[in-house]
Every structure is written in C-alpha cells, then in structure tokens.
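Section 5: illustrative case.
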C-alpha cells in the first residue's frame, strides 16, 4: 500500500510539473527560434508589447493585407523546423494538423486554379487576379511582441490566409484567443485530395446538433435572416455579439447537451492538453446550461449555414458560405491577455 501511495504521489508531482511547464516550454522554444534568426530577421520579427499589431488579426491573404513579422518563405530550413516546434508545443496534435493543413490548402488552391486555367475554364485576367492574392504556404508570418527571453509580458502571432494564432503571456500565464481558422475550399473537390475536409468535424457537430433538436427547439435556435458572408465578429467589422439569442443549453436534453459540449471540446482541444483542459474546465464551471446555440441558414451541410455558441466566458462562431469556412473561438474579456495584463498591473507596482 505504501509503494502504491508513493507511485501515485510521483505521478501527481509529474502531472503538476507538466501543467506548470506549458508556458515555460513555449517560452524556451520561442527563444530558440528567435535566437536562430539573423540580426535583420530579429529586427523584422520583434515588436514592442504595446504595438497595435499585437491586438489586430486578419484572415485575408497577404496580397490583400500585409502582415507583421517575417514569412515562412524567408526562413531557412532549420528555422522552419523550429517554427514547427513552436507550433507543436503550443497546440495539440489536432490543432497542429489543422494549422499546417491550412498552410497546405493555400498551395492546393494554386494547383486547382492552375488546372482550371490550363483547361480554359477560367479567363487569364481572372487567373492573374487570383494569383495576385499570393496564396502560398510561404506567406504565413511569425511576429514576436516583447522579448520571450527576458520579458514577463510577451506574445507571438502566426498568421496568414485563413489562420490567426495569438498567444499572450504574463508571467507564463497564457491567453490564447482570438483563434481563427478557415478553409477554402471547405471540401476539396478534385484530384487526389478530393473529399479532404480540414474543419469537417466542427461542421459535422453543428449539423448534427441542429438536426437532433425537436421542431420547437430548432425554431427557437434559428434566426430568420440571411446567412452572413463571414463570421459576424470578423476581423474588420468591429462588431461584437453582446445580446444572447438561440436555444439555451438548459433547454436541451442530455444527448443534445453532449453534442453541444463536444463542439466546445473540438475548439478548445486544439490547444496542448493541459492548457486545453484548464480552459475547458472554466467553461464547464460557468455551465453548459448557460451556453446559447444559435443557427442561421440551411440545416443541410451542402447549403450556406452559420452557427454560434455564446457562453458566459466564450464565443464560438462557424460560417460556411459556398464551400468556404470561417470559424473563431474568443475568450470574453481576455483576448490578447487583456484580463491577465489587467490583473498584473493591479497587483504589481509600475511607473
């Protein structure tokens, strides 16, 4: 019995050590990546923690919106290895695979339109306009805000077409939103990638939930309006969803609540397990019963549709208009570490 107790205590100590080391592991990996850069790259990749670029995000291709930092295309192979290490210590395996698949989808867009151009299915001027958008795996950017080696407050951003990952740190406490992921196409139509759906699980769970509701529940969940062409709280809209609408979790049966919970899980567990578990437990503590599920559009996955989950501490939006997905997870009151920074300033003396 004594030996069993010792083993259990050792496992508990190891678990706590792993949980506490998440921020420090990311910091160590970020420092290693930054130290691998040339002096010119360091100047281009590093911004002050107060720079406005830290609290802005965008999902448009770089041909339409320039990005802060340095691109994957400008890195050496060894630096790209370290970038992927940073991604993999920050995200779970599913989050890492989704993010890198979004990189790859940009390459596949070029292949698809090259094929259409050769077949004469699109005009040369249309093809040029599309190529000017600069879709490419190489056109995703890394930026540091503050010094990960020495600053208590720092952050990093990896961003490009259909991806915006924003990590903010205060004394190794971490804020992880806004976290935007999108896919175009949502389901790849041709060639050897036909049928590939990078964000298919998010969509399937939403479709399953709206269709498992009773007619009365579905009517309450559905807002009678046109499907948005984008998520409502898009990067450049300036809009926020303040009012709650839709069907509340407490009005669902256990099978419906299970799907609702699994939608949340799918978003939150894109993070490394310990951090994801921490965030997921916050949401559970606030209550699944207090989460609103709202729907706009068709209940058929092949037609335009939109859904949101609006809870006391978070917001999730999903939009699929014409085989093109945009989705986001936001932590209310703590985007870009807003609440962490507030607590830090209140508890620490500052000039």
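Designed sequence:
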């Amino acid at each position: 019995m004594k030996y069993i107790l010792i083993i259990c205590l050792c496992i508990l100590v190891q678990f706590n050590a792993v949980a506490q080391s998440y921020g420090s592991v990311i910091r160590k990996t970020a420092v290693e990546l930054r130290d691998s850069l040339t002096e010119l790259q360091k100047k281009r990749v590093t911004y002050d923690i107060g720079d406005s670029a830290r609290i802005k995000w965008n999902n448009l291709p770089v041909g339409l919106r320039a990005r802060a930092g340095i691109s994957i295309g400008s890195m050496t192979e060894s630096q790209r290895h370290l970038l992927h290490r940073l991604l993999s210590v920050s995200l779970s395996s599913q989050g890492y695979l989704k993010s890198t698949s979004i990189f790859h989808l940009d390459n596949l867009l070029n292949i698809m339109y090259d094929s259409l151009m050769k077949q004469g299915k699109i005009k040369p001027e249309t093809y040029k306009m599309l190529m000017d958008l600069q879709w490419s795996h190489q056109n995703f950017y890394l930026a540091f805000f503050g010094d990960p080696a020495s600053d208590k407050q720092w952050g990093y951003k990896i961003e490009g077409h259909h991806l915006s990952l924003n990590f903010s740190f205060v004394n190794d406490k971490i804020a992880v939103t806004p976290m935007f992921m999108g896919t175009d196409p949502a389901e790849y139509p041709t060639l050897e990638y036909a049928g590939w759906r990078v964000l298919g699980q998010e969509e399937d769970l939403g479709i399953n939930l709206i269709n498992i509701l009773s007619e009365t529940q579905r009517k309450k969940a559905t807002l009678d309006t046109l499907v948005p062409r984008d998520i409502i709280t898009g990067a450049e809209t300036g809009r926020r969803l303040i009012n709650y609408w839709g069907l509340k979790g407490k009005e669902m049966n256990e099978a419906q609540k299970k799907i609702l919970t699994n939608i949340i899980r799918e978003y939150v567990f894109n993070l490394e397990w310990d951090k994801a578990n921490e965030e997921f437990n916050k949401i559970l503590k606030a209550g699944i019963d207090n989460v609103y599920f709202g729907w706009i559009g068709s209940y058929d996955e092949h037609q335009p549709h939109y859904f949101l989950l609006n809870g006391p501490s978070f917001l999730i939006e999903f939009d699929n208009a014409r085989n093109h997905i945009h989705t986001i997870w936001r932590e209310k009151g703590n985007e870009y570490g807003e609440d962490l920074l507030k607590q830090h300033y209140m508890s620490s003396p500052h000039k």
